[in-house]
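User: ok so my PI wants both of these folded by tonight, can you help

Assistant: No problem, let's get them done. Here's the first:
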Amino acid sequence: MFDTALAWLREPQQQLQAALRWAAVQTLRAGKLPKHVAFIMDGNRRFARQRHIARIAGHSAGFDKLKETLQWCLDLDIRIVSVYAFSIENFNRSKEEVDALMQLALEKFETLLDESEVLHQHQVSVRIVGNMDLLPEALQRVLGKVVYETRAYTKAILNVCFAYTARDDITTAANRILTALDEGRIQSWLISVYLLEYYHPVWFTKVLWPDFGFYDMLECIVAYQRAAPVVSRLRAQQFAVEQQGLRVRLNALLAQLGGEGDGRSSPFEAGTRQSEKVAALEEEQRYRVQTYVRALREAAMARYATLAAAYDHNRPCDAAGKREAIPLTRHTASLSLCLSVSLCLSLSLYVSLSVCLCLTSPLKIALKHHDIIHFIVYY
């Protein structure tokens, strides 16, 4: 009876909180919202130390917070979310902690598969960014299953950076581009360096990731909206610079091919013939890049299909139809295809997946092809 009375007293407060959240979301949605938000999920161990609980309990709380935060993003109509879940450098931690983290990740992604109604309802495509060869075999299989199951969805995207570092991403992308150049699949003039000069709004908060709340996120969004005019101006300036750079490269290429470009005049001012050559080169650029990226995606999806099939084969069901747990085992993968494709796609398509930056200023405004804001939570 006492519990019923408490529930009755709490109900108006909960309704008021829900109404306030709805009003806050509607207010923010009236302004400019980022299309892509990235979270660095740090602070789990410190959270555990502060509460005198096991480290793995802190990491588990961090995973639970992610589920809650993704719902906030859906409420705000933010359809692309990236999360930095596990760094390659984290493998330097104790074996006990790493093994516990791998087991926790396996259990959480298993739960995601068992309760996949939300993914299907919102048509969320899950993508793994990182060197999957470094992960245990059982975890690779469940990740592959999640990615393969959601591959056709386009309404929302969840990028999970797992076994990832920017250094490994850039190295892998550069090696792939070099291989593509050697094979003649792309040409050097297709590669732009502008991506490496781009920045984006970054918000720092001292709130630990498991403590990150709804109103902490709203504070970040408000900061982004206040910075939006500066971002728009920088975007226009950078786009003009990039277009000029592209024209210079096209003009130089025309000169090499025996065209009328002399390296000084713009090909767009050289008459109809020159314009037709430029249009043809631009079309070739699009075709080569699309073909190259399609091949990368097909190779990655082929591996995911293999992992998904292995997952189904190795996961027998009990009498109730529930999947049985499988212990993790470390191994060296026979399929050596690193899946850190974000920067590789970015260099060839001038599109950024959002690489995490450590900046000293509280908020640094700059340009991206997509509106991106990072929430960096202090560790």
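One down. Here's the second:
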Amino acid sequence: MRPEAANSSDGRTGSRRLQPEAMNLSDSRKGFDRSGPERAPPGSRRGRGLRVHVRPRWLSALYFRGGGGNALPGDLLRRGRRQPLGQAGTLGVPPSPRSPLMRRLSVPRWMSSWLGGGLAVALGLTGCGPAESPEDFRLAEAEAAVTFEPASGVLFGAFAGKRGTEDHAAALDALERLAERKMDVHRVYAVWDEAQPNKFLLADLERGRIPLLSITAKRQDGSGVSWASIASGAQDAQLKAHALALKGTGKPLFLIFNHEPDMAGTAHGSPAEFAAAFRRLVTVFRQQGVTNVSYSMTLVPYSFQSGAADAFWPGSTYVDWVGADAYNWNGCNPTAGDTWRSLEEAVAPVLSWANVKGKPVMLPEWGSVEDASTAGRKGQWFRDALDTFKRHPEIKVASYFHTTGTCSWWLDSSASSADGFQALGASGYTHATAAAWLQPSTLTGTAPLTVMFDLSGSTGFQSTTGTGNDAWSLDFGDGSAKVTGRGRPTAVQTHRYTVKGTYRASLTVTDWKGVQNSDTRIITVK
């Protein structure tokens, strides 16, 4: 589900980093950890923000006890370079009512450098097309597919539609003010031949959000790209360009390939051709050494209920997350049902299906309309969603669709709706990682320019909005002394810029678990 037309945005923003110390490596043969924040499965290392799950494809030969974390077979170790773990965010725009594609975070050989206990992990290459070699197949078996999942709770995010003359950066800022919190994840929509990272993705990298990037098999001129051509290798040049560009960001992101292929009819090909194209994309990315992308297959919930999802499934070796777009239509779309549905009811099919596959679940889009006959019902729908998230800890990512698509999904469709979403977003359970939130009173003006920076919305892991931080540092970007503090960031810091120029003001917070996050805003003085 997405708006009818693509838009563009000129987001400005700043950088958030997920620290390696905040990661946990846990054996996830069972697909996801149901133990909650206080217990971890055997073989896991409890982390401070996100847990890194190693999927069951790894070989016992890669498990080394004792020694250093770099005890890797030389032929595998040479295939990857260690990179700092960062975080990516994105401002994105849906190109058509049902097109984009999805991505997920697959994690690398450099993970081994974090493991003092000596667990060495190597990522290999997995083939899915005619170019595969025997070595590709061997590496596919040896590969350790890793997902970045919060140790507890939900990574909370949204897509923000534009209103009036605002661009998407302004739309996302407005959404966050409405929600009274910073989003962990931001949904970005892109077409096949759109250069990456696009300006929206770069903007979110600056702000420290994790990008949830969808790429659809449709070109900027409106022409389609067949799944068969992707699977055959005919589109490898474009895939390699995307792979190298996203690898170059050095930050993790979720990738969705051809979002909702089950709603595309036969425009791009058959379900089997979709699955083959998905495998080809992942294979090419791995061949280019991409280790910061996690791959997700996203369908509509009914496909998981009807069994149609099976035909689209690329295989557990290639898919890290199972995604579903869960909506309460309540009659707004004649083909989608005319009854009121809780989020619990909407997600039931995908939860059962993903459980069998042993994969974590994301909701790349979700939303509700109002109930014209019952005031306040949508607001309660959001409050009830928190209970659903807690009952189903396998739901690790939820990105709300704040716009008008087939129906009106705006969060502020009523005061009670906005209040309900604020209550959901304020919960510690929906703060699954640290978040610095820097809100300047203005982004531009003439010298001398006085800017008031509000830091008070910054939040720590599993903490209610505005709490949970132990230390903070604010750099105004003009060479003046940094302002630092302990505990909750001071509500407002005032700074005067006296010289014309462009300045990068950056706030870094360290939460109670030692996890850091940064948010950067560009201040232009004329």
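Residues 310 and 479 are 57 Å apart (CA to CA). The first strand starts at residue 23 and ends at 27. Good luck tonight!
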